[in-house]
Amino acid sequence: MVVNASLIFADVPTGAPVPGKHLKRVEEELDVAGVDLQGGILVRLTAASYDPYMKGRMRGPERKSYNQPFTLGAPLDTLAVGVVERSDVASIPKGAIFKGLLPFSEYAVISKARLDMKLGKVIENPEGLAWTTLVGAAGMPGATAWVGLYDIGKIQKGDTLFITAASGAVGQIAGQLAKRDGLTVIGSAGSDDKVAFLKEIGFDVAFNYKTTSTQEVLEQHPPTVVFENVGGETLDTILDTIQPKGRIIACGAVSQYNVPFEQRYGVKNTSNVVTKRLRYEGFIVSNHDQTEFDATMPKLIANGEIKIKEHVSKGIDNGEAFLDMLEGRNFGKAVVSFE
Prior knowledge:
This protein starts with a strand and ends with a strand. It is globular. It has two domains: about 1-135 and about 310-335, Medium-chain alcohol dehydrogenases, catalytic domain (Quinone Oxidoreductase, Chain A, domain 1, Alpha-Beta Complex); about 140-285, 3-Layer(aba) Sandwich (Rossmann fold). The longest helix has 14 residues, at about 140-155. The chain contains eleven helices and 15 strands. Helix content is about 25%, strand content about 25%. The strands form three sheets. Strands 3, 4, 5, 6, 7, 14 and 15 form a seven-stranded mixed beta sheet that branches. Strands 10-9-8-11-12-13 form a six-stranded parallel beta sheet, with helices on both faces. A two-stranded antiparallel sheet has the order 1-2. The mean pLDDT is about 95. By secondary structure, it is an alpha/beta fold. Helix 6 (about 190-200) links the parallel strand 9 and strand 10.
């Protein structure tokens, strides 16, 4: 028997989730040798990801969206990776590396029914990347940067790209990929050490939006493409300063995720979408083919061409690390290590 800790969705928040109230660490005994696999596999997690989109799943079933709400009283689902401890599936042997959308637990039973949903798969790791990197730069956040730039933004050499939340999981990868392709890259972040990191990885212009006017920076460097992760007032500034026929890659609006719906910022410059003939397009990364990303990104990380910054928490808490990520207190990709 082992003690198996999980991060449980305990209650629906109206604003920011409160650790220990809306999210809770719960421990249960697990018989690793005897637990019913329901025709599937038992995975011992080695790393898991905290991502802003997870806040959108912390809702009641009456609110519809592109994804399902988390189940009250059950572990969150998260992008995670681990090692198969037991298997009832011939094609998934013990010891295999399994990555996908998994229950946020130290040990997770993935039933045959869940395997049939194709939410995870066996992967190889020939580059020997860290477990945390497999769910970060080489996982969904890195793929989000890739798909956003190439499928949605359709970036070209000579473009000027502005990235909001640029030191985060997606922004830091997007900026470096864009520099590889010959773009001028501008990034905003919320602290001076994050700005210094952006300069280290090659951003042409990097600034602290808390101490420097975003409006003034973008007036000096009007973008042709924006990778937008923040929303709110920043989006208004983007609409005011982006060049005509610009493209906005709508990836998120993290500034508004913890704000009750009726108090969210009302964007005022939407008419500029028409008058500047802009293209503003959102996307769900899982709807896009990631074959080229999967073949390319691990090698770029392994050879040092893409540098990464991770904010690693050890083990499962009561949701404090998740809240830190939502409120910008992380520095780099927020991940949990179980090693």
